[in-house]
Here is the input.
Amino acid sequence: MNHEEYRARQDTVTVDVDGHSVEVAYYEDGPADGEPLVFVHGIPTWGFLWREIAPEFTDDYRVIVPDLAGYGSSEQTDGFDRSIRAQEQVIEGLVDELDIRTPLNLVSHDIGGGVASRYAAHHPGAVSKFVVSNAVCYDSWPVEFINDLGLPKTAELPFDELEENLDFAFAGGVHGDESEHAEFIEGMKAPWMNEDGRQSLARCAVATNTNHTTELDYSDITADTLCLWGGDDILQPVSYAERLAGDVSGESEVVTLDDAYHWVMEDRPKAYTAELRAFL
Here is the structure.
């Protein structure tokens, strides 16, 4: 489905973030009594990142794909923090408000991996299977591109320049011919290409606080863990996956997919789905 069709399938729920009521969008499909499978995106993406993956599991799982606070179809106002620490509260709120039974299965990417790691470490009994893909951890982030987007000028950047910056991340970041990923590229850019989205992108980018992953004790993660990594990623190299797998307390493994950069689920959707299904 394209990003407009995906948005039409989303619903919203209100969660608490540091005492602020924040409207969060999410996609849900699958049997209501199915085993929960939650997908968490990173920056500068939204739930549409999982368009090729999440629908493949709706026959067997209750699939839930949130847009983090300030991202995608979620609220984009200036009234709340967007850091990894704050986004952990979004996951907590979703679990409560949507009555998601635990332990749940948690799949994550990029800063969503940092959010999910915090949740898994702080709620060890609440996560059964834990998947991190090309995720931030320890001091692996932020990257220069995101730091630059966090400057105040991004909130007033001409839209043609903003689109050029996003094309650098998405069109320039996929493996192979970008024309084969046109739907993905357009969908990833769409939430940011208006005044509210542009400002929210700047707020999301400036909230990338490395302390929120360096403070974690990764041995507190007791869930079985799969580091499912795009092997050619230079932003979040596989060496961090190996370190993470060695530190968690649960059973762990590292699986790398060749011909895949940072957007591994877009570069290798069939292989990613197969590895995820086998792990679950």
